[in-house]
Specification:
The chain is α/β, with parallel strands linked by helices and 327 residues long. 44% of the residues lie in helices and 19% in strands. It has two domains: 83 residues, DNA polymerase, domain 1 (Orthogonal Bundle); 230 residues, Rossmann fold. Helix 1 crosses helix 2, helix 1 packs antiparallel against helix 3 and helix 5 packs across helix 6. The mean pLDDT is 93.
Length: 327
Amino acid sequence: MEETKTEQYHRILHEGAQLIQKQEEETLFLEALGDFGSIIRTGDVPAAYSEEVQQELLALRDARPAAEKEEIRRALQLAVLQGMKEAVQPHHAMTPDAVSLFAGYLLNLLTAKEDKEKLVVWDPAVGSGNLMTAVINQMDSAVHFVGAEPDETLLKLAWMNAELQEHEADLFHQESVGSPALKNVDAVVSDLPQGYYPDDDTAASFRTGVEEGHSYVHHLLMEQGIRHVKEGGFAVFLVPNNLFQSEQAAMLDPVLKEEAVVYALLQLPQTMFKTKEAGKSILVLRKRTPGMAVPEQALLAELPSFTKEAALADMMKQIKEWVEAHI
């Protein structure tokens, strides 16, 4: 059976990373994959590699098929998922593919009335860039993406994602709570990391920071997102289902009520997650601006299984009609 272009591209990425691992035995697959991405981009192979391996890597680089952006994204996604099985860290979790595409669909609806030629979209926790590029690939408007990621390996993979798909992106090696970021971006989209933020002094400058103990990092990043999106701009966040019932929810509620408007809370199918506690929802916020029309009630829904095409199509139709009536 003939390989699809996604399969061909994935095989080349996998073989390239494995070759690098043979040259650098202590290197993890994800690190080697990022290194191969650099070789693809520049054509420069480390001189320390054997002549044979140098030639093989360049041959793989040249053997990549001409592919669509989504084919390339899926190929790299498969390679990253393989690498995550090797030595996954708690923050090395990829946004499910269907969720990434749905987030892109939502953001495209929400920004449909923008009259700018190019939108600036920010992800404060860009990870390996799969959500970033999936969203860009769903957008009708041209997008300049800005992302930040403290993990060097994931950041290198995000660069690889953007470069191979020829997307316009500025990516920064930093964490987004305590670091400066671009102001007045057109939109924010992020699969927010969960856990505690270790720097209490920095957290104290946020309304969502708690007085005693560590603050939730996803609360701080949401507040940071609201700070940096333009007035009237949207933020699409993946959040835990218990966001409004958690022990620190009282710190988040006034920020969302006073600085933003909750437009929608869409619960993702439980079948996507291993445990009930791991369940997530898509939260859509809009930064307040004078004279902005505010929906009488937020759109609240439980999304059907993404494998139930008819039910999902009906839900997407309802969401589209609601969004068009409220922006």
